[in-house]
């Protein structure tokens, strides 16, 4: 008997988004459909301006499309109230930015604790454990300017995983790092999400990184050009 296909965790249909540039209208997303299964690691690749970061933000509930729908774990993301969407982003979704987005006046520990501060249930022990898991157990009280780029990105990873989200989105997480540090960050991120069976969607310009996932989606002029399995990416 054929095994039933696993249910999709996230489904996006007919996503369209454009931006005005003077007198011109630039179509960034042109009818994109994406289906993601729980536990998958997917890399979004494409040239600069192809629409991959806009797609990532749209899938993550951060940027409303002009048309189309994003359904995450049975909830219509942009059909939900702003309060429900904020709860979803805080509790079920993690996001890792290329520029880290750490608050410079807060310590590494306080930055990681932020997701639990918002709903008012601060968990210091959990934050300490998260930093220890990313190799920063001895940097708890350091401010972001006192940390290297790689260490700041590790803090950002710990923060993104603080509430044990079911999916993590990462926008060029190695873009500001040298190749050796970037490789270590990718190894860390992949090992963490696989341990917890967390879905991971990563935007990258580096084709060498894109082979590390379960699938690679190539974005070209606002459409998905092709979807490749790992065996086809080698």
Describe the structure.
The protein is an alpha/beta fold and 234 residues long. It contains eight helices and ten strands. The chain has helices spanning 52-59, 82-91, 108-117, 124-133, 149-160, 179-196, 207-210, 230-233; strands spanning 8-21, 24-37, 41-45, 67-72, 75-76, 93-96, 167-171, 199-203, 215-220, 223-228. The chain has a six-stranded mixed β-sheet with strand order 6-7-8-3-9-10, with helices on both faces. Strands 2-1-4-5 form a four-stranded antiparallel β-sheet, with helices on one face. The radius of gyration is 18 Å and the shape is globular.
- The assigned structural class equals alpha/beta
- What is the straight-line distance between the termini? 31 Å
Mean pLDDT metric = 89
Q: How large is the radius of gyration?
A: 18 Å
The largest β sheet comes out as:
6 strands, mixed
Q: Point out poorly predicted stretches.
A: none
Tally of individual helices: 8
For the secondary structure, the number of strands is 10
Order of helices and strands: EEEHEEHEHHHEHEHEEH
Q: What level of helicity do the residues show?
A: 25-40%
Beta-strand portion reads 25-35%
Note the overall shape: globular
Strand order of the largest sheet: 6-7-8-3-9-10
């Amino acid at each position: 008997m054929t095994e039933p296909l696993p249910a999709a965790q996230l489904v996006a249909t007919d996503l369209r988004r454009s931006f005005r540039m003077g007198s011109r209208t630039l179509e960034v997303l042109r009818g994109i459909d994406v289906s993601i299964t729980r536990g998958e690691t997917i890399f979004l690749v494409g040239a600069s301006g192809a629409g991959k970061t806009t797609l990532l933000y749209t899938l993550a509930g951060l940027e409303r499309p002009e048309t189309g729908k994003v359904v995450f774990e049975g909830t219509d993301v942009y059909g939900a109230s702003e309060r429900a969407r904020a709860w979803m982003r805080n509790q079920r979704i993690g996001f890792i930015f290329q520029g880290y987005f750490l608050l410079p006046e807060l310590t590494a520990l306080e930055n990681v604790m932020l997701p639990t501060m918002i709903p008012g249930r601060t968990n210091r022990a959990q934050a300490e454990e998260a930093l220890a898991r990313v190799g920063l157990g001895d940097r708890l009280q350091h401010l972001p300017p006192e940390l290297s780029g790689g260490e700041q990105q590790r803090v950002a990873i710990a923060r993104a995983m603080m509430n044990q989200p079911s999916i993590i989105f990462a926008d060029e997480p190695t873009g500001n790092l040298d190749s050796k540090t970037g490789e270590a960050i990718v190894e860390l991120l992949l090992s963490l999400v696989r341990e917890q069976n967390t879905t991971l969607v990563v935007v990258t310009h580096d084709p060498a990184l894109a082979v590390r996932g379960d699938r690679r989606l190539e974005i070209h002029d606002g459409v998905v050009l092709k979807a490749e399995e790992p065996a086809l990416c080698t």
